[in-house]
Design goal:
Elements lengths: L5 E3 L3 H24 L2 H23 L4 E4 L2 E6 L2 E6 L4 E9 L2 E10 L2 E5 L1 H4 L3 H16 L1
Helix pairs in contact: 1-2
């Protein structure tokens, strides 16, 4: 990733908090197993696995998005995806749910569509799009 001087990933403190919650839930599972509460053990175990999966995702897939003169690199569970500036289409999508606006950055190339939110990027997708647009303009000029 040396060719990608600009990158975005989940904020490190968010990932650390997710790991801390996972450990607390693990302690809760152990406590519930000792107490014999089967239903509570199952529910707490599911919560622990869910938060742990998110923490692992935030730890292993860093950076989620990187950009440089050659194009974009996006890391997903399915592997790393590289797109040149000429083949990558960038756009913002704003959706309103429960009275709140949510902004995501979409990177589209051919049949591939990758969607990044604020948590994925560690900052506002609008700011990321501004940087990507500037880099794309420099690379294509």
């Amino acid at each position: 990733m040396d060719n990608y001087p600009t990158s975005w990933a989940p904020q490190q403190n968010v990932v650390v908090v997710a790991w801390a919650i996972t450990l607390l839930l693990l302690a809760g599972v152990a406590w519930l197993v000792i107490g014999g509460d089967v239903g509570g053990t199952v529910l707490t175990g599911v919560a622990m696995l869910s938060v742990g999966a998110l923490a692992l995702h935030g730890t292993l897939l860093r950076p989620r998005l990187a950009a440089g003169p050659d194009g974009i690199l996006a890391r997903t569970v399915g592997g790393a995806h590289r797109y040149s500036w000429s083949e990558a289409r960038l756009r913002l999508r704003t959706t309103r749910r429960f009275g709140r606006d949510s902004v995501t950055l979409e990177v589209e190339s051919g049949e591939h569509l990758l969607v990044f939110g604020r948590i994925d990027l560690g900052e506002d997708p609008r700011d990321v799009l501004d940087v990507l647009t500037a880099l794309k303009g420099q690379a294509l000029s």
